[in-house]
Amino acid sequence: MSLTDHDTTDGLQEFEESCRKHNVPGLPGIELSAEYYDDVHILGYGMFYTSPEFQEKLTALRKLRDERNEKMCAKLKTLGYDISIEEVIRESEGDVIARPHIARVLMKKGYVSSLKEAFDRLIGKGALAYVPRKTLSPEECIALIQNAGGISVLAHPGEIYLDSEPFDILLRKLKDAGLWGLECYSSHHSAEEIFGFLKLAAKFGLNPTAGSDFHGENRPDVEMGIDVPEHIIPGKLTFLAFKKLDNSGGVSVNVHSSFAYKTD
């Protein structure tokens, strides 16, 4: 399994310690936000997340995220919603501050009845208080992960709203930039979509992976872990382990994992 939080490696040390304690194969990860006509998320697995260069870039990304949150709170204030960034910071309880924290403050103050309403009416893309985010390009995300010794995977492609031809162009661009895998199995995908993404992974020479996209209480309808076929096995802790698995001859096991790696 892997922990892949948005634009942060907070919690990875505790995650790895817990995996060792319970003898569970664990892989350090991250989910980087990018923009390509639509929101695109690039997963990173097995990188040396404590490297100064990697952390320096994450710090810069967090600063951009914080500035965006402050602007959204200011817009909400202008619209008549009594909400401050200080309240949102308290709501985050030390986590990376994100729109769900703003939504929960709005709920607690009675302005909305649900997280969905907060996003639909106020802070979702195109809504009244929405502020576009400044992010890396997908290619920059891939390079950042590779430079830290990790591998990159395009997350939940079913959430990328592109027609088939432009989506193929995106996959080709990312493959050329070093993309390693495509998250074919996801809680976001129907059986038909999974089949289609498996075909695309084969077409572009990408490794199919799996992820539940579990977000805790922010998405209570999504459970941790996802069922995958027997030819998918969990990832290992290091990039070297991926290389070894690639030449292992195709071990087959049943798994219920948040990350998976395909062997031949």
Automatic annotation (TrEMBL):
SUPFAM superfamilies: PHP domain-like. GO terms for molecular function: 5'-3' DNA exonuclease activity; 5'-3' RNA exonuclease activity. InterPro entries: PHP_domain, Pol/histidinol_Pase-like. It comes from the Bacteria. This is Polymerase/histidinol phosphatase N-terminal domain-containing protein. It comes from Acetomicrobium thermoterrenum DSM 13490.
